[in-house]
Amino acid sequence: MKLRPVSQTGATLLLVVSLIAGLVFFGPDPATASDTSTRRDSFSESTHCGSSSTPTPFASKQGYLYDSEVILGPFGTYLGRTIAEVESQLVWWTVPYSDGRRVRIHQAMLPSLEKVTATLEAEAAQGRIYWIGSAGGFAQRTIGGSYRFSRHALGLSIDLNPGQNPFSGDNVLITDMPLWYVNAWRNAGFCWGGDWEHIKDPMHFSWMGPGAEGAVGPSLNPRPPKTTITPLAGPIANPPNPIRPGDGPVRLGTGRRDRRRRSRRGRAPISPRWLRH
Ligand SMILES: [Zn+2]
Predict the structure, then answer these.
(1) Beta bridge pairs of residue 148
(2) How far is CA 199 from CA 55, 172, 173, 232, 267, in A?
(3) What is the distance in A from the centroid of ligand 1 to the CA of 159?
(4) Helix, strand, coil % in the chain, rounded to nearest 5
(5) For 93-131, how does the pLDDT look when each residue is reduced to its tens digit (9 = 90+)?
(6) Tens digit of pLDDT for each residue in 252-267?
(7) How far apart are the CA of 128 and the centre of ligand 1, in A?
(8) Separation of CA 14 and ligand 1 centre (Å)
């Protein structure tokens, strides 16, 4: 009985030491605790590209998007709060080995593109060249049949040689791109459409964002929000559900139609290849 207080003290001491050790060894990494943690946002289009997939935000309409269209979430934080703000940061990039073809892209991914160029020049020095006959960049529209922003509308995507590298809703990869060429893009922080999980779009390379290789530059400073944060005055009631019993079937968008058409025909619907990404 005399030993019990001693053992309790010992246990308390052990607990305190363990807590201190835990703080020392498992505490927050000072390099990722502040502003740098916000630089890790992923713009990856597919988990198969090695970084968590982040869908683009919804737009207010489908198809062509006006300059005033608002861009929500981390895409807006880093790239511009509206299409007009994205456009103000577009720069021309000359596609390597394309007879001088140029595409408009967001300046935030220019460091990654310069890495692609350097790698392709090194490959050319070894006698390996993949020639580009067609190239596309910025296009202010949504993904076909969807309200989501196309990454082309954010200046994050480039299409190369679509004729030889067609979109496939059946998940069939058709490409004439050599592995070393694709790797030049993968290793510079781009997600290749040929790596997507359920469909294939090998013409399409999209930048994976602030966490991507060689990506961090001054153009990636987060933008201040457009609106000020105001404290809530009181509890907010749930908004009424717009769909009531007895309203009949509700159409949720063309994704459903696509699936119905797919099941009818036994294959994916054919869409213009340049609209599906
Ligand atoms: Zn594309």
Answers:
(1) 58
(2) 15, 7, 8, 44, 12
(3) 5
(4) 35, 10, 55
(5) 999 999 999 999 999 999 899 999 999 999 999 999 999
(6) 444 455 455 544 544 4
(7) 24
(8) 58
